Structure formats: structure tokens, C-alpha cells
Amino acid sequence: MDNRLKPNIFFLLLLLLFTPTPIMAADGPIAATIKKTESTSLTSQMYRDVRSGKLNIQGDHSAVDVLILQRNIPITYDYVATLMRTPNAFGEGPACVVCHSSNNPEHSYRGLDLSTCEGILRGSTESPPSPVIMPGNPDKSPLITRLHNNRMPLGIPFFHPIDGESILKVKKWIDDGAKNNQHFEKTILPLFREKEAFGGEFPCIECHPKTNGLSLTSYRNIMRGAFYKERKKKGLPIKPVVIPGNSEASPLYQRLITNRMPPGISPGEDINHPNIQILTRWVKQGSWCK
Ligand code: HEC
Ligand code: HEC
To answer: Does residue 161 share a domain with residue 216?
Structure first.
């Protein structure tokens, strides 16, 4: 064999081995697509923001936050339907449709059908009938609030009665106008300090000298609502927990009687679970059935 050829063949083999052919093939078309649709496509905008350092991806839920919520991706009913029929979708617990699958109250709790879009829009049909979503307004939609509002006192079991004496006293005080009088000082305020007043292991003020920015230690603090100091700093209006004359609209009463869903879910489960945020966005976007 011609000796001068040997090193050349060796060199060619090396060249073949180290040529990144597959990568180039994949890179080419993608890069071309990005260039072509640079100004319009979601994906190209994302890459542009990554390059310019505008996209700050941090923390566990960052993908949902940065790629879905901040970009207001339209949430399809298809995804909502999947959530309703998937176990552990919002934290550990059975799928919603196990217990809410028809308008027949003999087979489905509250006659609530979460297995179809029409059913979700119709709401609970058992008396008293009640809507579960207000399209555009997640804060007023039980379908959403039921997923992230824990019943109080935190950790109270699902089966604990919702018509106990202390609960009814608070309800009546609110419905009678939530007045700051002797009755309040003598019979209502002490309930929040008593260990056993509402069941559970701890009295309310154990956590609410300040948890959730809410203090239940005096009339003034109660009426200041949740996150008073934080909201004041930002110039935001107060977030009341008591609406005088209207217990149904008052979180202070609602939190005593309303169980988080699914029943038995641990209060330790993330109340900002990515799927709760996605469902919230669906309601905010108008709860479209498509
Ligand atoms: C194991 C059965 C069960 C599962 C699973 C379940 N629920 Fe419920 N749900 C109930 C019961 C019982 C009630 C009525 C008692 C109450 O209000 O706490 C209820 C009430 C509700 C209500 C209030 C309806 C009204 O008329 O005010 C909503 C909203 C709700 N559930 C949503 C859900 C969602 C969303 C899921 C899935 C994350 C879910 N539920 C999973 C049993 C269940
Ligand atoms: C072990 C601690 C703990 C105890 C005890 C407790 N809470 Fe809470 N509370 C929390 C936490 C944490 C939140 C916010 C997160 C959540 O909803 O789970 C909260 C939220 C609230 C809110 C909602 C405020 C808002 O944002 O609108 C109200 C109202 C409330 N609690 C009332 C009570 C009452 C009344 C009691 C006594 C019956 C009580 N809490 C006992 C921890 C506690």
C-alpha cells in the first residue's frame, strides 16, 4: 500500500467521527423557523427574552408562571376537563369527578357536575342552588376558592360540624351589624382566644396575632382585615374579613364553615399549586368551553 495514503485515510476517519452532522441537521430548520417568525410567535419571543435576560426563571413553579401565566396563554377547557378527572391534580386527594359527576343530588354531592363544561357553568343544583364560577372573577368563584382556602382553625377535620355554638354566635354578630359593643367584648372577642371555642388544637390568636397579616386580637384589628400593613404600604384598600350585616360574604364566617376541596386534603398542601393557578387563569379568561 502507498504509505502516503495512510495518514490521509486516518485523517478522514477522524473528520467523520467528529463532524456533528445530526446536531446541525436539527439546528438548521429550528433556527430558520425562529428567524422567520421572530416578531410574532410565542416561542421566538421566549427565546428573545431569554437572550436579553428579560426572562428570569427561578423557583419551583417558574415554568408555569413565566411561560403560561405571564404570557397569558389561553387555557383550554380540554385541560380543565383533565384536571377535574385526575387524582392529586391540586395536591393529594381523589379526582373531583368521583364525587361531583352529575346534577342528581342522589349520586353527586351538591348535585354538582364537574365532568362537563356545561355542568361547571350550571353549578350546584341541590337546594340552595349555587353557582361555582363567576366567569372573569376567580376570587368570587367557589370552584377556585375551595381549592386554596383552608377551613379555620387550620387543620380542623372535614367532618367537624359547621353549626357549633361559637360559629353561630359569630354569624349572628356579623348579621346584626358587627357592632363594637359590650356584647362583642364579652362574648365574641374571647372566642378567638379560647382553645376549644371552634374545635381544633389551637385558639385562633395562636396564629392570628399576624398570620396572613390578620390579627384577631381586638375589634380594630379584626376590622382592618388581612394584610393590613402590607396593603397600606402599597396604597391598596383594606381586604376586610367582616362585612357588617352579611355573614355569607364575610371571610371570618366563611372560613369557619367552608371545607377546602377535595375533602381531607392536608392544609400543608401548596395553596399556590400550579394547577390551581392554571384553573384560576381559565376562570379569569372567561371560562370558555372550547
Ligand atoms: C370525596 C368526595 C369529594 C371530592 C373528591 C371532591 N368533593 Fe367537592 N364537595 C364534596 C362534599 C361532600 C361537598 C359539600 C360539603 C361542603 O361544602 O364542604 C362538596 C362541595 C364542593 C363545592 C361547593 C359547592 C357549593 O354548592 O357551594 C365545590 C365548589 C367543590 N366541592 C369543588 C370540588 C373540586 C374542585 C374538587 C376536586 C379538587 C372536589 N370538590 C372534590 C365532596 C367531594
Ligand atoms: C395553626 C394556625 C392557624 C390557626 C389556629 C387559625 N388560622 Fe386562620 N389562617 C391561617 C393561615 C396559614 C391562613 C392563610 C392560608 C390559608 O388559607 O391556609 C389563614 C387565613 C385565615 C383567614 C383568611 C384571611 C384572608 O386572607 O381573607 C381568616 C378569616 C382566618 N384565617 C380566620 C381564622 C379563625 C377565625 C381562626 C380560629 C377559629 C383561625 N383562623 C385559626 C392559620 C391559622
So the answer is: yes
> Looking at the domain assignment, is residue 182 inside a domain?
yes
Residues of the chain with pLDDT > 70: what percent? 85
> How many C-beta atoms surround the C-beta of residue 188 within 10 A?
21
Distance 269 CA to ligand 1 centre (A): 17
pTM, two decimal places:
0.85
Q: Can you give the residue range of the structural domain that contains 172?
A: 151-259
Pocket test of ligand 1: the residue of 88, 99, 134, 152 to mutate, having most ligand atoms within 8 Å of its CB, is 99
Cell 352579611 locates to 246
| In the predicted structure, residue 96 carries a pLDDT above the cut 60 | yes
45-67 confidence digits (pLDDT tens): 888 887 787 776 667 788 898 88
Indicate whether 146 and 159 sit together in one domain. Answer: no
**pLDDT 10s digits, 102-153:** 999 999 999 999 999 999 999 999 999 999 999 999 999 999 999 999 999 9
Q: Which residue type is seen at 62?
A: S
Please give the number of the atom of ligand 1 that sits closest to the Cα of 262: 41
Phi-psi map region of 245: left, alpha, beta (phi>0 left; psi -120 to 50 alpha): left
276 by Cβ neighbours in 10 Å (0-12 / 13-18 / 19+) ranks as buried
Number of domain units in the chain: 2
